[in-house]
Amino acid sequence: MRPATETELAEIVRAASGPLRIRGGGTRSLGAATTGALLETGGLSGISLYEPGALTLVAGAGTPLAEVEAALAAENQRLPFEPMDMRALLGVEGIPTVGGMVAANASGPRRIAVGACRDSLIGVRFVDGQGRIVKNGGRVMKNVTGYDLVKLMAGSWGTLGVLTECSFKLLPVPEMQATLVSAAMTPDAAVACMSDALGTAYEVNAATRDTEGRVCLRLEGFSEQIRYRKAALAEALGGDWQLVEGADSQALWRDIRDVTAFAGQPGDVWRISVKPSDAAALVAKIAAPVQMDWGGGLIWALVPEGTDLRAKLGPIAGHATLVRASDPTRTRLPAFHPEPAPIAALAQGLRAKFDPRGVLNPGLMG
Q1: What are the pLDDT digits (tens) for 291-341?
Q2: How far apart are alpha carbons 276 and 314 in whole angstroms?
Q3: E strands within the chain?
Q4: What percent of the chain clears pLDDT 70, i.e. is strictly above it?
Q5: Predicted local confidence at residue 138, as pLDDT
Q6: Is residue 66 a part of any domain in this protein?
Q7: Stretch 16-28: mean pLDDT, rounded?
Q8: What's the 3-state SS for 54-86?
Q9: What is the pLDDT of residue 366?
Q10: Residue 177 neighbours by CB under 8 Å, 6+ apart
């Protein structure tokens, strides 16, 4: 089923007599394969409003993300949160869409400076599990009506409603980008270095330890500022730093954003979100190739196939998500980290409110 309008989508959901599998471009599939009728959002496509002067864009959920990015690039603007493209990592084809990006709350290395996808999302329209059309938020930044519900839809993976339209606040593309790259560091030294860098006044907006152990620190802004900030940051941190600029810097961060170091490599991929201060100890327990993003707060791990990484790590102050694995492993291990009882009760209450029949991606998030 591929509805062409929001009204048609609402009628399909309202008439559903069993589970529905919600799919945008099919590039961000997590968890065990679910049963149910396939419901695609690709027909709900197109940019309905773009006001460069107001730094605002509104697009249908099925709009290809590349179409949005091309429109923004023509006006020297961008989505602030640097959404990840998972196709290489997951070994899938398809076309990333606006709705899939929002449903996954897809956010890249710049998250530590500008927030996640949900922080740039200012309005949504969606169809809930009863076939009701719901609108929350607005099309301009000053309109915060229903703001909490707007944020709630980001990262809900289609379990609360089927997105039909999303509104975003934007940012200009900076004049220059430069990256400082270190020699290999241990996880402990890397976390300390990234913490120091993020604590300076030089506005580091991405800090990563890559799979080779190198710390990468990104600066963006006006050319004159960058010339000063990169020299001052290197001096403040000490040690030897390689400078990467322009297209080479952009390519470096695309690879970091999309975790391409693990693309095509055998094994399962996990995504662990923790406090940066806990990262080094967890990396030691993982004992496998890792990439540490967000100053150490996000760990990507490539582990042997079938590894139950949650059991290996034990209780953590964070969560571990199974991103890529074989079908038997995805059937055996839930994709999402088990929630504490109070959070699980809240989540169940929300699903009961928005999808009382349990027809939207049932079982995906618990």
Answers
A1: 999 999 999 999 999 999 999 999 999 999 999 999 999 999 999 998 888
A2: 17
A3: 20-23, 37-40, 47-51, 56-60, 77-78, 121-128, 133-137, 161-169, 171-172, 176-184, 206-209, 214-221, 242-245, 268-273, 290-293, 298-303, 319-324
A4: 97
A5: 63
A6: yes
A7: 90
A8: HCEEEEECCCEHHHHHHHHHHCCEECCCCCCCC
A9: 66
A10: 218, 219, 220, 226, 245, 246, 249, 250
Q: List the structure tokens of 3.
A: 């509805």
Run of H or E residues at 234: helix 223-237
Last residue of a domain, one of 258, 293, 319: 258
- What's the predicted TM-score (pTM) here? 0.93
Taking the C-alpha atoms of residue 238 and residue 127, their distance in angstroms, rounded to an integer, is 54
Assign 136 a pLDDT band (cuts: 50, 70, 90). Answer: confident
Residue span of the structural domain in which 271 resides: 260-332
Assign residue 56 the CATH number of its domain.
3.30.465.10
Of the CA atoms within 13 Å of residue 340, those in its CB half-sphere come to 7
Distance of CA 9 to the CA centre of its chain: 26
Q: If you average pLDDT over residues 10-32, what whole number do you get?
A: 89
Q: Is residue 143's pLDDT more than 80? A: no
Q: Are residues 304 and 180 in the same domain?
A: no
